[in-house]
Amino acid sequence: MSASPIALHASGPARDPAADEALDPDAMRRPLPDAWYCVGQASGLTGKALRAVELNGEQIVIGRDADGAPFALRDRCPHRGMALSKGGFDGAELVCPFHGWRFSTEGRCRDVPTLSEHDTADFSKIVVQRFPVIESAGFVWVNP
Fold this sequence. Notes:
Elements: H1 5-8, H2 17-23, H3 25-29, E1 37-41, E2 51-55, E3 58-64, E4 70-74, E5 88-89, E6 93-95, E7 102-104, E8 109-111, E9 133-136, E10 139-142
Antiparallel strand pairs: 1-10, 2-3, 3-4, 5-6, 6-7, 7-8, 9-10
């Protein structure tokens, strides 16, 4: 004997999974895919200053390149994980404060000063993740 349709719904009204997720505090913390997040006013990002921000648990360093365009990189040197935002920046290269590795604003390694003339390194394999970044309506936006 099969259960009647009335018995199937006797435990209460049907629930809407989308509505349940909208009220779930953990769901509210998950990042939105393909979303742009405001990281500050464009006027606050000046000169050779770097700013560290956290978006959805990701540490990001933002700044302006030599042409004044904003950039956003993962705020970790791939060598030992030091925050690049704590190092130097001359408008073209970020310098890791730990061992002095240098990275372009595109995230490419440009120099490893501790290498000797006998050492070889494929710099094309040493990169820092770059994030899409735009400047719009007076704000800087990042898509992590």
